[in-house]
Records
---
Amino acid sequence: MNKKRKRHKLRKDSRSCYVVMALLSILCILPLVLVLSTSLTDEVYIKQHGYALFPVEPSLSTYAFLLNNKGRMLIKAFGLTLLVTIIGTLYSVTITTCYAYAVTQDKSVFRFARPLSFFAWFTTIFSGGVLPWYILCTQYYGLKNNIFALFVPYGMTVMHMFILRGNFREVPAELIEAAKLDGASHAQIFTKVSIPLARAGITTISLFSVLRYWNDFYLPKWLITDSDYTTMQKLLYDMLTSTMELLKDASLMSSISAEAIPTETAKMAVAVMVIVPVVLMYPFGLKYFVKGINLGGVKG
Amino acid sequence: MKKKSLWQEIRKNYFFYLLALPGLIFLIMFNYTPIAGIYLAFEKYTFEGGLFGSEFVGLHNFRILFARIDDVIRATRNTLVLNMGEILFGTVLNVAVAIILSEINNERYRKITQTFVLFPHFLSWIVIGTVSDALLDDDAGLINQIIQLFGGEAVAWSMNAKYWWAIIIIVSIWKNFGYQSIVYYATVTGFDPGLYEAAEIDGASRLRRVWSITLPLLTPTIIIMLLLSIGNIMRGSLEQIMGMTKLSPFILETTDTITTYVYRIGMAGGNFGNASAVSLYQSIFGCVFVLGANMIVKKIDPDYALF
């Protein structure tokens, strides 16, 4: 720590580095500004002048239109996605934590620790492909058009398991020995010593898991055909593609622009509803994301 | 050491067996049974017959695959081009951003800008597809507005396949550079400050220090990260292409990857056997690339090897 600080003092600042990072930051945020301001612009304006980076006459009319006409659908999709995110994260994190703790054990305690590590790792280099998986899920496991289809297939992410294994390995052996001498059982050591000490890793994979479920389009695309189980991502995708269908048909296009139904702005408004929760959890999760990325970059 | 019988050991340490069990069942159900399900590539799948009971047809599916070899080659080409483009140009930007960040002394400024550039990584491909719609719309898109502002002609992005390699590569890099530069940044901050002090005393310029100290020290990490990405070169994200292109037929020429091809002929076209044959080809070559890349990484630095 000390050394680093000294180095920072010695080296002078370069103004160009500050400018480049400022430009890159703007480049990363500007497209999102575009989405937000489009959602606040009038549809007719977009049809006439195109997308605008800043709303000319900001109004909430698109949001009002959506809530009045599609309110039920939106709330349902939002609620379902939120529910899946919560249940799914609990489910994945539990399975992953337990498995990671088991494979962290020395082979004198748990003989299959290393083989099970390999068993999990092997799935990252070879897969049977998506089609056998799809047939198994829909035809044999009953994971089609129900809420389970939206989280059960994401039980364990092997990379997360290895991040956690790394965390459990850092728990000092002396602490575990001490707990053993005090007569603690395996289960007590797991819940009272190891889990609290690996809290940072568990938080990290929980946050990754939350984002994964919230942003997921893969499971709804493959396993959901019933509109009762439309998640936010699926809803947004359906809006993107169905307006494309409309645009292909020139005769319909004219009638729509006449009525000024907010199609373009509605897409952006739904996108805003998808992004806002991510923005809200982002500052809280940032510290853990950086940690998790560094752990994931190196061998777990 | 006396070896206990398995049963005795299970009874004594049943706790760990219980802990591993849900994960084990999950992996068997969702990873290993599908591997056994590769059998699909050798049968004429029917719903009634199921995954393991449909009519065995040998290499028939592969013969059909060769009949459509042009599509498979196109999908392979697109997969390789998109991945290579992202890896090569992305790495340059990732390393540059890491070095620039390390040159910023104001910790708050550094943290804030890092927060901004990391953000797109956490957006879904569908959201990014929405953003790119607003940017690349043929009539109303922001990019065409800018082109016209400078007197150019609006480009029909959605109809011209030739632009889409570049579009997808640029957007992927945009999404991921904040995230990927973190690993390089962490490495750069770990370098011995004494080297930089000595260079400073010798009057080396900033660029000189980056060129002669930072880059050489960073090279092993760069090579390793490159190899690890090359291991994944046969893979591709369905969500990425669907989000960006919605599988629009006008631009399939450059955007149809192996992953989307399998989806299109399997899921949309209903031809499971044929799609599964393509999928098997992807799995096998993917595995070869991962193992090959890992073998080289292991030679350079065993710490980074996956196994």
---
Amino acid sequence: MSDGKVSATLPDDFFFADRSADIDAVRRLQAERNAVAARKKGSKTFDAADQRTESTKASLTESFDTTLYDRDGANKYAGYDTSIAVNEDEEMEDANEGHNLVGQYTATRSQIDEMAHGHGVEEEDILVGREKSARITDRETDYQKRRFNRGPLTPTRADPFAANTHANATMEGNGQTYREIMALRELEKEEERVKKLIDEKREKGEDVTGFDATLKIENGDKENTEAGSTVDANTRKRKKRWDVSPGATEVTEENESKREEPKPRAKRSRWDEAPAPAAVAADAAVKKPGRSRWDQAPPVTAATPVGHQGLATPPHPSQAATMAPPTFGTEASSRFAPWSDEDLDMLLPTEGYKVLTPPPGYEPLQVAARNRMALPAATPAAIGGFMNQQPASIRSMGTELPTEIPGVGDLQFFKAEDMAYFGKLMETVDESTLSVEALTERKIMRLLLKIKNGTAAMRKTALRQLTDNCRKFGAAALFDQLLPLLMERSLQDQERHLLVKVIDRVLYKLGDMVRPYVHKILVVIEPLLIDQDYFARVEGRGIVSNLSKAAGLATMISVMRPDIDHSDEYVRNTTARAFAVVASALGVPSLLPFLRAVCHSKKSWQARHTGVKIIQQIPILIGCAILPHLKGLVACISDCLSDESAKVRSVTALAVAALAEAANPYGIESFDEILNPLWTGARKQRGKGLANFLKAVGYIIPLMDREYADYYTTQIMEILTREFSSPDEDMKKVVLKVVSQCSSTEGVTAAYLKEHVLNDFFKGFWVRRMALDRRNYRQVVDTTVDLGQKVGVSEIVERLVNNLKDESEPYRKMTVETIEKLVASLGVADVDERLEMQLMDGMLTAFQEQTIEDVIILNGFGTVVNALNTRVKPYLGQIASTVLWRLNNKSPSVRQQAADLIARIAPVVMQCDEDVMLNKISNVLYEYLGEEYPDVLGSILGALRSIVTVMGIHQMQPPIHDLLPRLTPILRNRHEKVQENTIDLVGRIADRGAESVNAREWMRICFELLDMLKAHKKGIRRAANNTFGFIAKAIGPQDVLTTLLNNLRVQERQSRVCTAVAIAIVAETCGPFTVIPALMNEYRVPELNVQNGVLKALSFLFEYIGEMGKDYVYAVVPLLEDALIDRDQVHRQTACSVVKHMALGVAGLGCEDAMIHLLNLIIPNIYETSPHVIDRVIEAIEAIRNAVGTPVIMNYTFAGLFHPARKVREPYWRVYNDMYVQSADAMVPYYIDFTEDIMPRRKELFIHL
Amino acid sequence: MADKLRTIQNLEALQARYVGTGHADTTRHEWAQNIVRDSYASYIGHPPLLQYMAVGLNEPKEKVRMQMLEKMVRGAGNPPEIED
């Protein structure tokens, strides 16, 4: 098979023999080849097991349409069950073991059983999952979650730039100054450093505590090594505590607790634990200090409850019934921090007590942080007194939570978490007793709640109120409530969007009043800049840019400066992104001096890293707008390329890459000074750093002149070829990208690539493993195609052609795709005969061996065959036999693909003068028209259409008068692909060879076509409409028109509209005089739908016939008169659109009298208010203006422009404005004379009002 | 309601682009001003017309053009006093 000799083995009269003999011959030959192929293990090429055994072929002689021509003998009920099965589990079998003509689709057994038995239905509430997934935190990565590590919002800052510093001082009082913040950052950094030192010491096993707490055991080393921040580690640590012997109770100084001091993160260490019941009992019995474990839920079985767990914690002052989440409200959470061992030792007496051991089998109860937080909210009134412990979950609370808040109204939802923020609104207070601040607070709270949880209408008004009054409320009151809301963990997308919108609106109004809050706003907005969601990022950028415009550059820099060398990488990253946005908002030049200073910072590498990162982000944001400042930006980072820190070097290379990418194809001169460090640097780097350097190189080379590009490419190629064999995925990607960038640069020659790159490239990347990963696959294909553009098709194909027979399917696919892309863009002119043979052979093998039918291989095959054109003739026999063999395959997708291939290669077959072969194929296709799978049927029809197109109607085999009757029943198929292909085929036949079929058949088709007018796809409706035109032309308009006019009576609007279009098309093809009389006669039917349909048809008709309409204007004017004075709005509206098309058609052809007559009838409709009607009316007036000239219409408008009633003036001004816009110059000669000092009025025109 | 808002916005956009368009609250003076300006602009914009007028006035074409340009300022006289 694969040796290309098949066509030689075919008998000479192969295609002339009787059809069944043909098939037999094909079968026989296939069988021979199968025997050969079968010897090869695992080949799919001609596996007889694939073939369909029972034939679904249609006979060529029998009548096909069984609904019209009853076929005798067949049992109508064959295939149906005649009784209902008793046992529901019994599988239903196909009655005759054959195929049904229509695909049967039903639910799976398990689905049906599930519905029947209700398995798994009650337990699951599908809404729970949905509600969860809307939460932002649930889809955040660990990195993004680090935003919560930033801890509480920082205190308000002082505004050093305020115009009136004195006033500011009195107003804002004690904001943090820049100096304080910088000192704080220093402290944090120091803390971080000490902590790291301690950790290192621990790693080494040294003892770091000078203090031995009572409750600690001696072998502290072991536990210290485990003392990570994880819950598990802590739990274990705790458990050990109970084993301690009571002897060791010296109180010494503890330095451990000192470093835990201000960090809420560290405080969490003991949150999630519950004590043993015994311990609680003991604690409760012994002494109050048992409270130290205030946050632990008492066990359910406890005999003496220690009181409600919420009791121990004084509630947050502003949130009466609930607890604040631990993330904000610094002072509060530090006050309620768990007691340290040191505290306990100081409080408890050292003698007379002993620590009990936990009972055997004790398991600490783990309560999730979230649940615990919600606990108090569940029983808000439970302060004091005995309470039964109830398991509280968020869901069970959902029902108890109110949706109606006093003073707010009905909300869409109200979540448990909202209680923490809006709980205050639930209390009923006498508002007259409240202070102004408290009132404002309540007001803002209410508005925010409405915006966050309210319905769309509520939200709108609340948002407007908030923005209008925000200066009155003041920035402090607003942001103090707004920003904590945005820090909420359970925030959902929609809520965040709305709150961010509030910030945006408020920013505009507040102006420089926001300055003290800039940092707080940034803390909540910066996470948006690294959100996965594109729109969230855009939103975040919008806010930051508005913020920087409102606060000004100086404030922005002074606020963000301390974060630039923050110890947390997350903070630095987000700050860099925010800074880039600031640069894009306020202009790069204004920020450049600052950036230069940061990038050259001597103090810390973190600052330099962040500075470079800012510069990397700027081009990503503003693209080619960096060009004017390119030199300055490059100058900032040029020194960092040889920085001592690897991280800085790495990010610098990335920044260079980003700058060069944005600058492409300009700006090479700006990079001049860094070329040398970049290239020499690339030689020194290894690993990830090298990848980044190469990336930068790859983006700079395309900017260069040809000589330079050549030189620099050779310089870097050595490293690139070395890295071809790198196992690192990232490196591979970068290398591929750089190779494709280098090869598409002008200066790099084909000879160079052939000599130095291709061999290594193919060795490194054309391996099977690369085809398995999607992104690698894509990269390799693209890069190879780019190389091919330079070195030519044959060079690449020669290396690839053997892969087409590779045993790995993805690898074959990758090869085919590469060849397809190359051949499609460059053709096959330089492919010699031997290669051509190998190529075709390989393509055929790849096509036949596919296990998953993929469009890639099909496209590749089609493209190659079309590119080879007549050169493909020797292989056609082979291709044809393969296709015919595959057309009978069991798998529908194989059949579909075979048919698709025919559609693609039919033109080439014709070019090769193989029309006999085409005839044979079309005969086979014709037999397969009984295909049951709609997708396959569609493809078969497509293939037939393609053959009809190239063969011509008259040479077609089977003859058209046989083919068309087969298509009529298929027109009834509701599958879109089938519809589209049939209607296309039928339309083509109607267009070119209508006479070969008799009129009755065409009428039958007309009836079928009417149904097509209901199709969803526009293409189908359009094709159906055009076919009406062709048919009408072929058999005369009368019969078709009758059918169409009758169809105007149907209920469906779309069908009527399409019928109207079809009538217009018939009129266009057969002349208006054949249609208009019948149409006008139909208008006499006293039925609204019909009359409207007629008007609609007239509208389309005049649109299509254009100038020809001038002969029919006077004929239809009486009809239009009637329509324009009808009571029904739609009537007048449609009549207006008729007038519009008519007027535009006859403009300048002298039907002014008729047009003015119609205008007189239209003008009163100017007061219509329904948008559709008034639009049509105005359009009609505009069209008439074109036909009769501007002055006439002007006369009409003068009457109403200054009418005392506004309702009159408004529409007249609309007409006037349209006139002014479209033909102002024509108005000038007809303006009113203003010499008299009276209002221009022309009494005679008042009749129009 | 929303429709009304849209029409107002459309009208604003239209007026920003075409100064001569009006609306229900256009005063007689504004309208007259626009008409005067449009007329002069049209005369100047059609050279044959300008030539014709220049010949009729027995003035150079350029002079007539300048006169017309000047007349376009306050073409319809001073705006009426606004009474409160």
